[in-house]
């Protein structure tokens, strides 16, 4: 809120119908002739990978693209983009609560007096810890799968998979997280908060295409088709050890990209995955007149087949001014899960 | 069992008291002068990193070591070492069962008639999937944390942390998985099954130091201090889509390394992490006279501070004869968890 | 199986089309002029209680009927009809597994070092136990609610409530267990095993109307409209402390009533609730030609609005030859739950 | 708070050291010569039932006492003393959250395409609902078991059972709810709010022995040894459909009995079980100088072996001025559970 007087007003003027066309050309110059599987400028990705496809834009990865991104990691530095999750952690209220519960413990095993381990075979009294987790598959650092969101009365998700056919009791039967391949790609940080000269974006701030351009210019970074684009709002400055400051996090968590910006990144720049340091990537609430309460999710996941990253911790990268790196993330391999959760994506430099 | 006639009998003859001393010298030649933080030949690692340390041998990683390992990944190939987990998956019976449960669903959200989303702001009827998981933190592809196992009447784990002080209700308060740093290191596959010329090792087969040497010789591979060593028994040939063949998996899952082999890998070769394609790494049951029902766990986790990897899928690496690569794994970042679970470690080549 | 040679063969001969008609008359004589709300001989109950009704035949209870049943309890004896449930207990495989997990414990509270309780205000170091349960709402001693079962492509349950309208994410929105009133009624035990002169009925034994009559005659008992009818197979002789003998329980658990018997009890005798000492009341598998894999459930719950009781422990009543008593049961009051579970119905005498 | 001006000030004057002695005599007159197993005036109950006992004061129930209490139920009226529990319900923050989750559903079973039910044997397409519950054993209407609370550094509960011996991983191994017998006893409502002429007691109001006497006098009721005593604060006027008004409930929920009152009821009047319409029975916070943050729990459960009832819904009884009745409650039969939960105790009149 206090930062709003610093808004770079002229940038907003670009938000006209003709603006995309102009940028189109400039972007083309930036990105040269880099060819990438599937993507078309002005169109993005979409349902182009075959009627059984569950992978979406991540199909664009090749040995060549991965090898190229790994060349960005020459120093052996690793940035951990995950945040620590506990029972107290802030999350979107539409998900279930979480508990990490000591299931087996050295004391309990002793009291239980059970025959799992014969005492005679265990003179050192070796015992074990094991936890039962009651946890939601959409908490802490996440990659949203392409089945996370449905649209329309037929309740379809990416590639037309419908709830009546593929919405099982044990999670979803198409586009679960098992179908998300390991992601190894060029990552680019867009430090929007820094470009706006604030510690963190104010509540409900909608990140515009002009904000993207301002960050690219400030950082002297160029986007390339196939990039993993990481958007920094600064919200996770307030995560602390486990995200228990719900009031503060909730305030800034409402900043995020607009639908125009999602389209700009995908259709003009070829973003393969878009992530941010908030729980939902997009500005909340959706602007009046949106066709959905979460139009960016609907556009990226359902229409474009572009995965979304959430709650990526970008503070260390921003502090060290690391804007280009090799992004590596492999989601939990759980049948039916709709999102990778409690992840640690890595930025290798 | 049926494979036992193929056992390479002479190898067993090496298992004498004098054998280690001889190997010591040979290993020294193999590994040259490579210095690595903390490790001493003949001793291994241990409680050497300070009284508050929760990291163990993984402290040996440096920018230099990581950069070196990343140079092994020149082709952009990625091997996914994770197995898919479902409610039906085989697991150790000492852990809790698992359910992936559709928590929010497009149909249920409609019937629930709740006010989370105002219908007027959602003309596209965008809805969402979210799953509640009841899951154990020690299932599917795992990295055991250093607090997984306790020993003695004071119920202590690595570095002397005691249950009475640090065994909380919400998991453990020292050496939880949050404290496990991202692992980027040279990985080496030891294909023991191939060295023994079997599809998979027979039930209860104890992998000896001689088996390790035979595999190294067959592969023409050399171990280096700081390696992630992956031991292939072939058990996961039977995982299928989600590990529902409990009888077959249970049979071969009982093959694994002996305590001698664990000591050989750590004290003579400097293994920083030892993993296999079984649920428990070590041969089961423990040999008669062991001081624990799981002596390898006690030795590696409690005494040496060496993490254990379990249920790593090594079939693709074995098929392609990839024995040296960059191993990358980042465990779930969950406070109190004793192990990373449902992981996808990556072998980059 | 071994008991099958003892079957009272002539009883089976009664199972002809004309048999019901004959019994109709006899039953009418037995029951005299007892009027009860809603029930019609030859028809039973059904969707007669109004379009919003969620209670079904239990609407028949009145102050008068309850007072009458309480008069059966003159001695102050209480029979506990519940069985003990644990993580090991036998259950139908279509339900989720169960864990009782020590959530808060004196030791864990100490280690957790949390501020819930100020040590200065707690010199006696009072601490507490609290368990987290992961449990299914259809385990151990149960009363099935009227929304437990759906039929047809519109997935409707009792009174025409449809899944699309009332099948929420948090259980069902019509006919959940909150809508089941406390049950206080005359209870009658039908000891079928005793009537057949066996310890327990053999596997897959279908209890016929003639078996019912034989038991009534042997016991010199008469049924009245509005009764809670308890059918003893003897299966729970094998429950032990917590039902861990799955093989033995699974064998006899398959005995139960046929659809003819359900109709006989409801349409000729006015049973208000039918319970047994098995997990599913009805014979399993359903006879060839049934229109459902569980035709008795479909008939009682969906069509007649008659609740079903399961896993009622009837051994003590049978031993003491108590055939008529006051049955009292009040199910858990959980919104959305489809069944009362881990109950202790009482037989007061 | 607003009600505090109505406090009956003179009552407080009775709270002197000499008051108990005077009341002692009066109480003796009230209760006549009624003998009851185990109880001694001035002492109460205690660890008197044998070193293995897990039942406590409920041992006092006999066929005779139950038959006597059942004679109070002549009209066939049933009062349901349970409150409805949902995921939104108010609870003590030291317990785990709750979810009722649709585990199997007609639509999900169809999408899952599984072989549990052969479609050919199920032409009516009968399907089922089953819920998975993640729930705490100390929520909604409860009976606290005698192992709920521990005291001292040896962490012992009733009868000296110690955590090191009996505190298992799967709940407690002594005094779990399986050991709580069905309760059938004379119940007496003490409407303290009515006696104080308020709708509900103000926050943090400590109910004194004089309040008890004032209620007895107003109601013209007499207590007898072996009674279930129900204390009404009026808090549950605000429960509504499922207790989602946490602010309002939290305010009044802090009213409750003092330790003096607990002692008065047990030692002078022979209460066998004390319950109220709050989550914790006792005034919160405990008065300065208490030896525990919950001294009434420690006294009743640990020292006296008297069970505690919580969140009993007393509004209907109060409205109808029913002060004496037959109380019937049978807790869930779950091994290891420390409390009965989501119960429906009944008041039969």
Report on the architecture of this protein.
The structure is a homotetramer of 349-residue chains. Chain A is of the alpha/beta class and 349 residues long. In chain A, 24% of the residues lie in helices and 18% in strands. The first copy, chain A, has a 9-stranded mixed sheet. Chain A has a two-stranded antiparallel sheet with strand order 2-4. In chain A, strands 7-8 form a two-stranded antiparallel sheet. In chain A, strand 13, helix 10 and strand 14 (307-310) form a beta-alpha-beta unit. The first copy, chain A, is globular, with a radius of gyration of 22 Å. The two termini of chain A are 34 Å apart. The model of chain A is unreliable at 1-33 (pLDDT under 50). Chains A and B meet through helix 3, strand 2, strand 3, strand 4 and strand 6 of A and helix 3, strand 2, strand 3, strand 4 and strand 6 of B.
Keywords, separated by commas or semicolons:
alpha/beta, 24% helix, homotetramer, 349 residues, disordered N terminus
């Amino acid at each position: 809120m206090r930062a709003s007087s610093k808004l770079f007003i002229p940038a907003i003027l670009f938000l006209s119908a003709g603006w995309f066309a102009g940028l189109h050309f400039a972007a083309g110059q930036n990105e040269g002739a880099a060819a990438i599987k599937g993507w078309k400028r002005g169109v993005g990705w979409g349902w182009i990978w075959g009627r059984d496809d569950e992978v979406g834009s991540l199909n664009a990865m090749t040995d060549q693209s991965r090898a190229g991104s790994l060349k960005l990691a020459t120093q052996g530095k690793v940035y951990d983009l995950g945040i620590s999750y506990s029972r107290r952690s802030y999350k979107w209220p539409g998900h279930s609560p979480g508990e990490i519960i000591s299931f087996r413990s050295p004391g309990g095993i002793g009291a239980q007096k059970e025959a799992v381990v014969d005492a005679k075979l265990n003179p050192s009294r070796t015992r074990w810890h094991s936890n039962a987790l009651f946890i939601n598959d959409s908490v802490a650092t996440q990659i949203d799968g392409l089945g996370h969101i449905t649209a329309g009365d037929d309740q379809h998700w990416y590639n037309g998979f419908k709830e009546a056919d593929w919405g099982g009791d044990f999670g979803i039967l198409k586009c679960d997280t098992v179908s998300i391949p390991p992601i190894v790609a060029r990552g680019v940080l867009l430090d929007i908060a820094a470009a706006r000269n604030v510690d963190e974006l104010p509540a409900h701030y909608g990140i515009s295409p002009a904000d993207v351009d301002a960050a690219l210019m400030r950082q002297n970074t160029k986007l390339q088709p196939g990039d993993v684009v990481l958007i920094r709002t600064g919200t996770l400055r307030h995560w602390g050890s486990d995200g228990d400051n719900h009031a503060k996090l909730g305030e800034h968590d409402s900043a995020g990209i607009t639908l125009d910006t999602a389209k700009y990144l995908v259709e003009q720049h070829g973003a393969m995955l878009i992530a941010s340091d908030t729980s939902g990537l997009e500005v909340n609430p959706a602007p009046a007149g949106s066709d959905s309460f979460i139009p960016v999710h609907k556009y990226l996941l359902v229409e474009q087949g572009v995965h979304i990253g959430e709650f990526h911790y970008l503070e260390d990268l921003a502090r060290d001014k690391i804007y280009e790196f090799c992004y590596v993330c492999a989601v939990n391999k759980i049948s039916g899960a709709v999102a990778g959760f409690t992840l640690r994506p890595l930025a290798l430099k």
